[in-house]
Each structure stands twice: as structure tokens, then as C-alpha cells.
């Protein structure tokens, strides 16, 4: 797997420091509240686990599974809802935890989903933000790192379900996905 990586963008240590920084900020912002932290499957699992360990607040955890990549290296623009949130989020503060925001289409879909469930508030925490990829206006409230407009894998992010278990985030060599 490591041989398929062109270069490492963020080391395991960089990511852990980002989790500490974001966890502390979210803890300050949600002091006295009990938000529902919603991880977006499958890519955000590793980030979410490390992030919530850094939060010093009471939280509930749930998951939402939406997809727009469908195995490729670019968003198809078609959003598929594979799993809904099971927790009753009506009137609750919700924090969506994403692995990456690229086109913004998935984020826009999820925020509409939360609004339809009448949440008290909805904020977004993403490990990676790729502003150059935006097709719609979308903004995270908490960002670990900005990334260039390249295809990245590792630490939960995949290419055809592989590379998620890399402990860092790196740029996948183009010859891997152009074969």
C-alpha cells in the first residue's frame, strides 16, 4: 500500500494534533450541551473515534451513510443515502463528522437531511477540506486541514475500499487509479 502513495500530506502525529485542537474547540463551544456526534460512514470512522476521545463533553454517537463517489476518484454528483441516523435528533445539537469535503454536494444533502429532522443546530467538523473541488457553497465549522485538489487516501479515506487503514493521509499515485 505504501508504495502506491506519491507523498504523505499529513502524518499520524499531524492528525492526532488536529484531533486534539478540534476536540478542545468543540468542547468549549458545546460546554453544558449534549450534542449528537454523527459520523459519516465509512471514511470518517477513524477520525471520529480519535476526535471524540479529545472531547470533554457528554455526547451521543450515531452514524449516517451517504455516498457520492461510488468507487471512483471523483464525485458522481448523485447522492445515495445508505443508512439513516437512528437517534432522535429533533431539537438536538448535531455535529456531523466528515473525512473530507470536496464538491460540497454530500454536505449540502446532509444539512438538508438534518434540517428536515428539525435539529436545534447543525455544525460540521471535517478532517480535510478541499475548497478547490466545490460545486456548491459549503463550509465546515471545524477543519483539520485544507488539502490540494488531488486524490487522497488513508486514515479512513479510500480508493475502491482500500487504503483506509493507512495511519496517515497521502496522495495516491495517479497510475494506481488510471489503470
Describe this structure in words.
It is a single chain. This protein is globular. It has a single domain, classed as Rossmann fold (3-Layer(aba) Sandwich), CATH 3.40.50.2020. Helix 1 crosses helix 2. It has helices at 12-29, 45-53, 105-116, 174-177; strands at residues 5-10, 36-41, 60-67, 80-83, 93-101, 121-129, 142-146, 152-153, 169-172. Strand 2, helix 2 (45-53) and strand 3 form a beta-alpha-beta unit. It is built from 4 helices and 9 strands; from the N terminus they run βαβαβββαββββα. It is 24% helix and 30% strand. The protein has a 6-stranded mixed beta sheet with strand order 4-3-2-5-6-7. By secondary structure, it is of the alpha/beta class. Residues 12-160 form the Phosphoribosyltransferase domain. Belongs to the purine/pyrimidine phosphoribosyltransferase family. It holds the Pfam family Pribosyltran. GO terms for molecular function: guanine phosphoribosyltransferase activity; hypoxanthine phosphoribosyltransferase activity; magnesium ion binding; nucleotide binding.
